[in-house]
Amino acid sequence: MRLFYEFRASDEIDNVSLDAGYFTSSKGYVSTRHDGGFSAGYAGVEGGNVSYVGLKYRYDKNTKLMVYASRVEDIWRQYYANANHNVQINSKEQLNFDFNIYRTLNEGASLAGPINVTAWSLASTYTYDTHKITLAYQKISGDQPFDYLKTSDGGYTNGIYLANSSQYGDFNSPNEQSWGLTYNYDMRGLGIPGLSVGARYVYGYDIDGKHLDANGRYGYLANASTQSEKDFRAKYVVQAGQFKDLSMQVRYAMHRFSGDGAPNLNEVRVITEYPINIF
């Protein structure tokens, strides 16, 4: 389950669509139950129902805007905006600029404690034929982390759209800044259609949680640390035959944290997807 884009409620005006949703329970990826709740992932406290409303606007084929507002009962209210613009240089080259910003404030019973966080990122992607390179900057302003939802079984909802959110780390610690560099290559350029590879490096610094309440929900988080992550991936999508569109992906991450943060970690993920058309 994602916090945003759950379904489309209206598309009656050209280039404008309205989304809205209200959730009373959740089902995690590894759960068979449908009556789970929602909790703040880093605070580890369960809140009430979740609701959101959003507007998406396509100015033209190269420019898109969206704004959303959401509420997790008794935990936070969150506001989100995105602007995306594409510049077509020629038939092989293009530039893309993507800006995301969140504003999160505690609400109601404030079960996770005080929250006053602004998180934003700006990414610029240059594409040349089968090559794609992205440079991104991300900033967290606030003495709490940029937190997001998880389901009752502990699974996160993938509800974070910041540029440096990576395989393992999201670079969303209190007051953190981060830079990221990503390279992707489509192997059709070497005559292997369906195969793509990529690599990413993200470095985060200025993590400062010294103003956190040591006895609060976020009191365990890192203070005055840096972190970095290297990600590598390879993905193949079957191009024809009985298993057309079956995809297989291997991802490897190396995450390193200095100071009082989490331990160093290496992680391998193997992902297989196969779309099935029901209707």
UniProtKB/TrEMBL annotation:
Highest taxon above the source species: Bacteria
InterPro entries hit by this protein: OM_porin_bac, Porin_dom_sf
GO molecular function, one term: porin activity
GO cellular component: membrane
Keywords annotated in UniProt: Signal, Transport
Family stated for the protein in its record: Belongs to the outer membrane porin (Opr) (TC 1.B.25) family.
PANTHER family (UniProt xref): CHITOPORIN (PTHR34596)
Protein name as annotated: OprD family porin
Organism of provenance: Pseudomonas gessardii
The organism's taxonomic lineage, starting at the top: Bacteria, Pseudomonadati, Pseudomonadota, Gammaproteobacteria, Pseudomonadales
